[in-house]
Amino acid sequence: MRLHYLSNKPWQKWTKVSSRNSIYLRKMSANSPPGKSDGDDPVDRPVPSVPPNPVENLGARIRDLDVDSIRRYLAQKLGFYEAAESAPPVPVDQVLDEVNLDGIVKWIKNERCKNIITLAGAGISTSAGIPDFRSPETGLYHNLQKYDLPEPQAIFEINFFRQNPKPFFMLAKELYPGRFKPTISHYFIKLLHEKGLLLRHYTQNIDTLERCAGIPDDKLVEAHGTFYTSHCLDCRKEYTLDYVKERIFSDQIPICTECPGVVKPDIVFFGESLPDRFQRCLQEDFQHCDMLIIMGSSLEVQPFASLIDMVPEWCPRLLINREKAGMRSPLLRLWGVMSGGLQLDDDAVRDVARLGDCDDGCQDLADRLGWGDELRAMIARDYERLELEASLSPTPTPVATSAPAHLAHLPTEPKL
């Protein structure tokens, strides 16, 4: 069976990949840099300051659809209507020798696979004890009643935070980096780096466990920000992880030393722009990607969810998740509306789902690649290091600070 490589058709690289990527770039918001990462960043490129409204464009395209045709489509699906004979569909070249996990393993072992991008959501951190956001009963949004919020999402809304930062910092104390160890999934990503295969790791997570696992800064894109650095909301002075951690664990709201502003970790709240580094890296990375691995994400939050469609059309995509996610709608796909997404049905040519726990999936993939023992040894060695560092770490001591005027309704020396 012939593999369809983009390098054999260079004109497709620019007409399909670059064109498609520019469409998704226009969906991204203009960014202000809440935090910065070290490392070699791709060259900046101009982005339109006023992106088109994708919702309006979608609505216009739906209105253009023929209602009778949609009715026939639904009737056909329900078995009430048989469509007249039409020209056979154009065959799509199968990318993988086998459209399953074994096919993915063969692809990764192929010398052409050199630039793997990983996309990760909260599912890779749940085994560390960090809850995800949306799971029933156990998800973070389901267990925020004790913070007396107008709605669960308010704890991550910038306007609410400016008026009442206390609920966020109470939650931050429970979730703060340093209390959790990286998981098998994190170390599998690090192993990809050590094998020279990791082009970039994009994460929705703010827990910094990738950094804790030893993935280099220049390989990381923290799409929703990070606890690693913080800034004063008013004067923008930067603060370290330890500075903010010391105050949070002393049950205090971090206050700037230069002005009365609140010091906020550089995680992206609702109402804030995505990090500048996210915008810069995706312009360069995805056209070079030759293997995409999605791990522990519901693929519901935009624009992160759209990244799966920015890789070349010949690039295999592996989903490691508890359930299928990011699948495209058959009806809208039929009419070319929102045609992106994973294709995980019988007609798949490049998309594979390994359903179940993320750690189990990563260990399974490592075993099939012949890296299983190496991964286990890496984890054991690093856990020993982390336990030693924890035993030597001093307990945070209280630090005095004063409350700004607009937080006067909170306790003095604002306590959590």
TrEMBL record:
EC number(s)? 2.3.1.286
Write down a Pfam family by its short name.
Answer: SIR2
Residue ranges of the region described as Disordered = 27-57, 393-416
Write out the GO cellular component annotations: nucleus
Question: Biased composition, Low complexity: where in the chain?
Answer: 393-405
Q: Where in the cell is it found?
A: Nucleus
> Which residue numbers delimit the Deacetylase sirtuin-type domain?
94-372
The record lists the catalysed reaction(s) as: N(6)-hexadecanoyl-L-lysyl-[protein] + NAD(+) + H2O = 2''-O-hexadecanoyl-ADP-D-ribose + nicotinamide + L-lysyl-[protein]; N(6)-tetradecanoyl-L-lysyl-[protein] + NAD(+) + H2O = 2''-O-tetradecanoyl-ADP-D-ribose + nicotinamide + L-lysyl-[protein]
Which keywords accompany this UniProt record? Metal-binding, NAD, Nucleus, Transferase, Zinc
The protein depicted here goes by the name protein acetyllysine N-acetyltransferase
- Name the species this protein comes from: Trichoplusia ni (Cabbage looper)
